[in-house]
């Protein structure tokens, strides 16, 4: 899961072994897959061999989400909050200054 994003450094926690990993996002650019017309996933691999996949296709603004505050478990809402920040840092359209 995504634990923190601070100054373009992302901290994730492995769902399997619990180990924390820091990833510098400043050199990562996620491109759109033309075949699917979707942004590629960001995949973070852990030393234990597991990999966490972040879907960077969620609505850009929380007000565009198809559910209301409280509809999702709090953990899930927090994850989406972080993924929204993540999208804005690594997605090519945001990097271009959309
Ligand atoms: Zn692990």
Structural description of this entry:
A hairpin with a 6-residue loop joins strand 2 and strand 3. The protein has 2 helices and 7 strands, in the order βββββββαα. The model has no long low-confidence stretch (mean pLDDT 95). The protein has one domain. With 98 residues, it is an alpha+beta fold. It has a 3-stranded antiparallel β-sheet, covered by helices on one side.
Give a summary of the structure in a few sentences.
21% of the residues lie in helices and 28% in strands. By secondary structure, the chain is an alpha+beta fold.
Give a quick set of tags describing it:
98 residues, alpha+beta, 3-stranded antiparallel sheet, 21% helix, binds zinc ion
Architecture blueprint of SSEs:
Blueprint lengths: L1 E5 L2 E5 L6 E5 L7 E2 L4 E2 L2 E4 L5 E4 L19 H17 L1 H4 L3
Antiparallel strand pairs: 1-2, 2-3, 4-5, 6-7
The structure holds zinc ion.
Zinc ion (ZN) binds next to loops.
Taken as a percent bin, the fraction of beta residues is: 25-35%
Shape category: globular
User: What's the total count of β strands?
Assistant: 7
Secondary-structure content class: alpha+beta
What is the chain-wise order of helices and strands?
EEEEEEEHH
Q: Helical percent range? A: 10-25%
- Give unreliable regions as ranges: none
Bound molecules: zinc ion
Number of domains: 1
Query: How many helical elements?
Result: 2
Spatially, the strands of the biggest sheet line up as 1-2-3
Kindly report the average pLDDT value.
95
Cα end-to-end separation: 27 Å
Largest sheet: 3 strands, antiparallel
Radius of gyration from the alpha-carbon trace, in angstroms: 14 Å
């Amino acid at each position: 899961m995504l634990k923190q994003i601070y100054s373009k450094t992302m901290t994730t926690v492995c769902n399997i072994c619990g180990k924390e990993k820091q990833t510098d996002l400043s050199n990562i650019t996620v491109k759109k897959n033309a075949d699917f017309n979707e942004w590629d996933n960001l995949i973070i691999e852990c030393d234990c061999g597991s990999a966490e996949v972040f879907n960077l296709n969620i609505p850009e603004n929380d007000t565009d989400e198809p559910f209301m505050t409280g509809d999702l478990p709090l953990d899930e809402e927090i994850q989406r909050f972080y993924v929204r920040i993540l999208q804005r840092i690594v997605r090519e359209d945001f990097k271009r200054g959309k």
